[in-house]
Structures are given as C-alpha cells and as structure tokens.
What does this fold into?
Amino acid sequence: MDIKNLAFSYDRNQPFINLKHLEIPDGKVTTIIGPNGSGKSTLLSLIAGLLKPNSGDIYLGNQKVADLSAKELAKKLAVVHQQNEAPSHYTVRQLVNVGRYPHRKGLAGMTEADEVAIDTAIQQTALGKQEACNINELSGGQRQRAWLALSLAQDTEYLLLDEPTTYLDLHHQLEILGSVATLNKMHNKTIIMVLHDLNQAMQYSDEVIVMHHGEVVAQGVPEKIMTAELIDEVFHLPVQFIVDQHGQNHMLTLKK
Ligand code: ADP
Ligand code: MG
It folds into this structure.
C-alpha cells in the first residue's frame, strides 16, 4: 500500500494529517502506535475510504482507494473498529454473514461460496459453539472475535484493526493477536493495526509506524526504531529494554 502527499483536516483551518509518502508493506503485519490524539484512527479511516482526504492518494496496488466503489473497496479491505455496534438480535452467524454482502450479485441469495466463507471465518475465530448465540450474549472477547469473523468472511487482502484488544483481558488479547498472526502467516493477509500496548506492538509486528501530531515520525522494524529515546520523546515515558532468555525484547516503564 502506497500513500502519497496525504493531507486531511477535520477543521478546514487546521490541517491535521500530513503524510508525504508512506509505504505499508504487503503481506506483513504493520502496527501503528502513537499517543492518544496522534491521528491513528483517522489514518485508518482514510485508508478505509471512510474519510475523504483534502488532497493526496492512497493506492492499493495500482488502484486508488478514491476510485473504487464502496462495494469494490469492501472486497479488498476490511476494517474492525475500536467499538462496533451490531443489532443485538443478530446471532454470530447472521453478523458474520454481513461480511458476504459485498460479494453478492444484485438480489441473489447465498451461494455455496458464501456458506464456505462463513463457516471458515467462524472456525478461524473459534466461535463454532457460539454461532447460534445472540451477539449480546457473548463475552467481550467473543464479541470482538465475532467482528473479526465478519471481516474474515469478507475475504479481503487487507485487514485493518483499530485497537482490537482494548476491552479484553490479557488472555483474550493474546488470543486475538495470535489469530491475527496466523491470518497473516497462513493466508498472507496484509494486516494494519493500531495497538496501544507497546510491548505487544514490538512482539507482533513486522513493522511499526510511530505517529505524533498527525505525522509519521518513525517507521521500520520494531527493534530498530522503538528506542528509549523515541519512546520518551513521543510518549513522555522513561523506559528501559530487557532481553529475556528467548532473546525477546521487552520494554519496562521506569518511575519518573
Ligand atoms: P488516535 O486514534 O491516535 O487517538 P484520532 O485519529 O482518533 O487519534 O484523533 C486525532 C485528532 O482528531 C484528535 O485530536 C481528535 O480530537 C480529532 N478528531 C477525531 N475525530 C474527529 C471528528 N470526527 N471531528 C473532529 N475532530 C476529530
Ligand atoms: Mg484511536
């Protein structure tokens, strides 16, 4: 994915997002980090075509996001937002079925391919036992997985996730991140996600993008760019890195 000269403002007088050139590698897991209000969710919404830039272009391969219809875009790119509202009477299976809408032709009903995609998405998110449950009967972790299942049923090349772990306990956080890693490795999906846990960003990402005040201040492999200096500068957090017996890097926050 290629982003060129992208500018966006919520308020005409105050330019906010400003990206000269950003390339997000295909087939990799890229995590956007940055303090609250740095523009992470705004950038995801721009990529997903939900916000229109003032200027600039976002390319998926050689196609511009702005040139694709909503349906064409939904076949290429799926988004799981931070908070998702489902009709509460929907069952898991009904919700996941929504992911197939972009693939339907006119008023045609479900095809064999739709059924297979729904079954696969439910299986990949381990919701088989819950597929007939109402969304509002699920735990927070299961609900997040149901939304992930919807976006998997969409069968897209790109998957965008905005803080997919925020409302989950640690066990379910790792479960979601594990599913995301598997989707990337087994199905070669390009994952672009926002995480606020810097350790998780370090562990689950091929590349990280650091945002600050609507701009990208660093991009690259986590070990290279997530330095104590950068974390202190951007997050105002004094930190130290330790390496465990498996050679894995961990960040510790220090007392001020
Ligand atoms: P992040 O996801 O990094 O926390 P956001 O992209 O949500 O940041 O928001 C970035 C800035 O844009 C914030 O200052 C926020 O107040 C502002 N903002 C977000 N959404 C809107 C909106 N719909 N209208 C006006 N300002 C907004
Ligand atoms: Mg956000």
